[in-house]
Specification:
This protein is 63% helix and 11% strand. By secondary structure, it is mostly helical. Helix 2 crosses helix 4 and helix 3 runs antiparallel to helix 4. The longest helix has 26 residues.
């Protein structure tokens, strides 16, 4: 099995060499800043996810089955080709952010945009195949994110 290009000995040695618990350079992370970033990125991923979802179309038509002579209903789902590009771009932004963490403020919204659109389209496709399962999963995920957001914002957790 090939070695992991992200989590390898060289990367861990680099982190160790930088020191643990050294004084922060620049601004320090705050709960308010984290919640602001979460809110913005979550809004981006929801909006782009809705867009991706809306791009998947299902058409249903009744046709004559020539072998049996009966009318049958045929459903076809159109899956947008740009989803593959969105997945590749999201993967690229994730790798860029890992290797250049200071790019995070620029790449995080781009990652959320690409990932949301791709996941929205993929989810719509599966939702049409397995009636309603994705809607349940999305609602459960949204509920957990919103509850945790409120718990952290009110400092209960």
């Amino acid at each position: 099995m090939p070695p992991n290009p992200v989590l390898n000995d060289k990367r861990f040695e680099q982190v160790i060499a930088e020191g643990y618990g050294t004084a922060p350079i620049g601004r320090t992370m705050t709960i308010g800043g984290t919640l602001s970033a979460l809110g913005v990125l979550f809004a981006i991923i929801c909006a782009s996810g809705w867009f991706g979802w809306s791009q998947v179309q299902q058409t249903t038509q009744t046709v004559l089955d020539k072998s049996t002579g009966q009318m049958v209903t045929v459903s076809t789902t159109s899956f947008p080709a740009w989803v593959f590009l969105a997945v590749l771009l999201a993967f690229g932004f994730a790798f860029a952010t890992f290797f250049k963490p200071n790019w995070g403020p620029a790449t995080a919204p781009l990652y959320a945009l690409c990932e949301g659109a791709a996941l929205g389209a993929i989810s719509a496709f599966y939702n049409q195949m397995y009636d309603g399962i994705v809607v349940q999963a999305v609602l459960a995920t949204l509920s957990v994110v919103l509850v945790m957001f409120v718990l952290y914002a009110t400092r209960i957790v």
